[in-house]
Amino acid sequence: MARPVKSIHGEWTSRWAFILAATGSAVGLGNIWKFPYVTGENGGGAFVLVYLLCIAAIGIPVMMAEVLIGRRGRQNPINSLKSLAEEEGRSRLWRWLGGMGVLAGFFILSYYSVIAGQSMAYIPRTLFGVFEGVTPDGASSIHTALVSDPERLLAWHTLFMLITAAVVTRGVQRGLEKSVRVLMPALFILLVMLVGYAANTGEAFTRGVHFLFDADFSKLTANSVLIAMGHAFFTLSLGMGAIMVYGSYLPRKTSIFKVSVTISIMDTGVALLAGLAIFPLVFANGMEPGAGPSLIFETLPIAFGHMPGGEFFGALFFLLLVFAAWSSGISLVEPIVAWMVENHNLSRRNATMLATSVIWLLGLLTVFSFNIGQDWTLFGKTAFGLLDYLTANIMLPLGGLLIALFAGWMMKKSSTAEELAIGNGVLYYFWLILIRFVSPVAILIVFANLTGLLDILNK
Ligand code: TRP
């Protein structure tokens, strides 16, 4: 199977269009909702350090690999991997790596949409002053009231799936570009404002900063190291083909190295700002950093409920958060839709309808896991907990491992060097060492550590 010169789905109009779209994919609930709560649950500083190391040593090289595979293959992840494997004289079984990514997309978006729905529900709540002068207990019971009502959660989840489908139907290059260009910077400014607000908490701010940046390694377990690594994949949208499919619309001339570094820095910056805004509030209000997935929905409203103009800023914040989640959600469906269109001859519209309907149905599991299905557990996790763990901590790192092996070992050096076009110099070899050895070995060690394999070997 020869690979096309251009994607049938069109191209980005410029390098910036790709950077914006990929940043739109990367920056989302992962940065603002998930990063603070997993950091809180895993003890703070040491966890953050491992996460940052994973971004630098695994995330950036794997992102470069995904973009390069996508741009060279010019199709959906399954076909790109298949045609590149053929071209390099490797097994066609590599297409299954793309298949696992498509499956991960279904799973992730199913719960992502429910959390995005909760953020949407917070727009009217903040706007109409529901949180005015709210206490920590009050904020927590408002959130509980929302999630314990399956009908309300379902309605917001449905709305989020509809707006996601609306963009994907039109093709991601149109529309997405403009919205990201304005809304991302706005979100960034609002976050900086929130950090400014948090800085006024005095001693609590200092505690928040220490919590985020003082590494106490005694708090780190094998499982938290896995969660930190899994989160690095999740937050950069890596390991399932989202960035790969965006790469397939990337014009030839763009430097893959520059765009990957830019995206990673912006994404990490947003996460750290979110942490700096939220932890001081946690400490100033005597709340628990390890409160779990409800953390931002219980802390931020307290700030909005007490600041001047809080209704406006609060509603704006949740609106921008929904936009950030929207551009991420789109990137989770795009690989699925591109695959259905290319391989199963569906129109873009029908493919989008089919994919989003299945995801919507799957989302019911998450909707119910906060209320009537709270007790439906497996391995001590609810359906939502299980979907999150399986995707972020297992499927994405496994996908990343295989992507690294494919780009590092299956593709010829001449092919990857040509695609990366960073010359055959130091930078190329730096990437090659990271993708061939550092990333795969690090991922394998984290997996082995988790299964207790390393303990057995030590004996
Ligand atoms: N990175 C997004 C966030 O942080 C979520 C996301 C979008 C994603 N596309 C993805 C996660 C692909 C994993 C894989 O919110």
Explain what the structure shows.
- There is one protein chain.
- The protein has a single domain, classed as Amino acid/polyamine transporter I (Up-down Bundle).
- Helix content is 77%, strand content 0%.
- It is globular.
- It starts with 14 loop residues before the first helix and ends with a helix.
- The structure holds tryptophan.
- Tryptophan (TRP) binds next to α1, α2, α10 and α14.
What keywords describe this structure?
single chain, binds tryptophan, Amino acid/polyamine transporter I, 459 residues, 19 helices, mainly alpha
**Helix/strand/pairing class, anyone?**
mainly alpha
N-to-C terminal Cα separation, in Å? 50 Å
Distinct small-molecule ligands in the complex: tryptophan
Determine the strand fraction and express it as a percent band.
Answer: under 5%
| Known CATH architecture | Up-down Bundle
Give a short account of the largest sheet: none
